[in-house]
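Now for one record.
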Amino acid sequence: MEIFPDGGLRFRFKNRMGVESPNEPSRDERIALISAQSARISALVAENAALKARIGELERRLGLNGSNSGKPPSSDGLKKPARAHSLRETSERKPGGQKGREGQTLRRSAEPDVVEAHFPAACGECGAALTPDASAGHAARQVLWTRPAFASAARHKGCMSPARR
């Protein structure tokens, strides 16, 4: 029986002539060799199971991203996951209001509760002084405030320079 540096044991069998080789192991040596191999196999099986568990955990962690874990989305880098498409089937109609539908819009109040006039000191383009008498018109916006039991409308008027018209 020979012992090699890698820990493996090897032995030689009978030669071709049928005469036993003087290097052939005895029965006790064979039993010791089989038990050593059995122990080594058991250790390798345990190591293999531990490595498979580790690979499974690493593959699970590789699959994590900002949408299926507690990681922030910025940690995903440039490999963003594909967006899920809608499961709704497409129809022949275009999105939005269809032809023939009467639309509804929020109309301006005829008499708002408050009217605020805004007069800038000078024209934004030419820099000339801007007074209510010298203005060429105004642009009006309406703001609606709604509260549970109260609704109010205010109109804001801004004077425009004759140069801007």
